[in-house]
Amino acid sequence: MVPLPHDFAISTALSKEDFPPRIVEHPSDLIVSKGEPATLNCKAEGRPTPTIEWYKGGERVETDKDDPRSHRMLLPTGSLFFLRIVHGRKSRPDEGVYVCVARNYLGEAVSHNASLEVASKSMFYILHEQQLFLMLGVIVEAQSFLLKGIC
């Protein structure tokens, strides 16, 4: 009979506590202005702690971990931070649909899709117009409520 190493029972007990990754915070859709910073959030649990990678349109996203000059940073939480959104007439490298993937030796978990859209000037005006109507609606409702109380 071959004797087992002293730490065999300990390592076996620890591995029973291991569990596959699961996404606990999914990224949300973003509308961002060109040149502004942005963050796509993602958090995962698992044991051992899962590694997180981001994909856009099925392709792995290059971050500062791959190239220190990259404008995209993988944060310790797993979120993807853009120092500035890059968007041009011919090239739109940041715009698209993203997912984060968490992996450990027990498996992987994939987040919900999140779209990152770069705001155009017309979209900017529409958003501000909607906010203005919302604010005016609240003011009108408040005035109506006050008038009902007085009359």
Describe this structure in words.
With 151 residues, the chain is an alpha+beta fold. The protein folds into 2 domains: 101 residues, Immunoglobulin-like (Sandwich); 32 residues. The protein is built from 2 helices and 11 strands; from the N terminus they run αβββββββββββα. Strands 2, 5, 6, 9, 10 and 11 form a 6-stranded mixed beta sheet that branches. It has a 3-stranded antiparallel beta sheet with strand order 3-8-7, with no helix packed on it. It has a two-stranded antiparallel ribbon with strand order 1-4. The termini are far apart. About 13% of the residues have low confidence.
Give a brief description:
The protein is an alpha+beta fold and 151 residues long.
The helical percent reads: 25-40%
Number of domains: 2
CATH topology name of the largest domain, in short, is Immunoglobulin-like
Strand content: 25-35%
Uncertain segments are 7-12, 134-147
> So what's the CATH class of the largest domain?
Mainly Beta
CATH architectural designation of the largest domain: Sandwich
Number of strands: 11
The Cα radius of gyration reads: 24 Å
Main β-sheet: number of strands, strand sense, barrel status?
6 strands, mixed
So, the CATH homologous superfamily of the largest domain?
Immunoglobulins
Series of H and E elements: HEEEEEEEEEEEH
Q: Which overall shape is indicated by the principal axes computed on the Cα atoms?
A: elongated
Oligomer description: single chain
Structural class: alpha+beta
Mean pLDDT: 81
Distance between the termini: 96 Å
* Total of helices: 2
GO biological process, one term: axon guidance
Domain Ig-like: 21-117
Protein name: Ig-like domain-containing protein
GO molecular function, one term: cell-cell adhesion mediator activity
